[in-house]
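Slide 14.
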Amino acid sequence: MKTKLSLDGADAAFQSLDNLDKGLDRRAIGGILNEAAKPMEAAMKSNAPDGRMNFNMRLSSFLGQLHSGDRGGATRRDIRRKIVYDSDSTATVLVGVNKSKTHVGWRAHFIELGTEKWAGKPFIERSGLQTQSQVIERFKDGVEAKVNEIDRKAGPFR
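Slide 15: predicted structure.
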């Protein structure tokens, strides 16, 4: 499940990136994106529904027999940021629920969209919309700081 955000307000930052001829490698761009996406991750964690543990789960937890997927709030715990690079070194930051083997991301779409018998509790798209302006501002600030750092290192003879 994907939610796309519009970066309409970041035109100046993209122009600054285009004007740079060197100095911004893919790790630097990935780092800027990773820092910019932190508010979205925090909002997603706070908006995710917190599963409650029933009596049997609490008893198993007390006895030390509880599996990692059986704990309440697993969706909230498994939210993460991930930087992905395309073949042309374009960086993309993904914020969502981890879908690897021991995590619960495979069921996030049920929570977000609901099922035939259960209404959804959308938290992914809502988090993206809540933090869109913050992410854009943090992205612009990160690019500006990196451009200033490159200019400072280059000195007067560029």
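Speaker note: Residues 51 and 100 are 20 Å apart (CA to CA).
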